[in-house]
Amino acid sequence: MAALTTSNAISWVRHPFIVFVAHVIIPTLLGATIYTCWRSTTLLVFRWYDIAGLTGMVHSIRNVVPSAHALPCWFRFSLPDALWVYSFTATMCYIWADRDGVWKRVWTGAVVLLGVGGEVGQAVGVVPGTFDFVDLVLCVLAGLAAAFATPRSLRRACA
Fold it and tell me: At what angle do helices 102-124 and 133-158 cross, to 10 degrees?
């Protein structure tokens, strides 16, 4: 059996699939976990759980996690949206990784605009929900973080 060397470990971490998991799958799962464990059961995702026959399992999970009141509000309410913007922006960066030009910027920017647009829509009353300045700021920061971090990771992964 070959010994794990630093160069083997680095090449494994740089693998495009690992980069995809780190920037897309993990943030999406973390956001879904926050919704599942600490958000109101009146949200749409809980109807999906019911349709999928997962309601009992979800209630069991919610019974063993710490109380939502022990967590900061930004963690429960703003972080899931920011993680969605991050992972969706990272997905666009992943899809458009080998291309340059205006369409790459349009598609990656569109994700951030969706997140920001949703918040602005809430502020003016055309999108259901409550406007939150923290949501707005975290969505912008998450989109920028993904736009700058993901391409670098992909360049290193494909090098």
Answer: 160
Q: What residue ranges of the chain have pLDDT lower than 70?
A: 1-14, 151-159
pTM: 0.83
Q: What are phi and psi of 52, to 5 degrees?
A: -80, 0
Segments making up each domain of the chain, as ranges: 6-158
Q: What is the pLDDT of residues 51-97, one digit of tens each?
A: 999 999 999 999 999 998 889 999 999 999 999 999 999 999 888 88
SS3 70: helix
Phi, psi of 31 (to 5 degrees): -60, -45
**Alpha carbon of 1 to those of 4, 9, 88, 125: distances in Å?**
9, 15, 39, 62
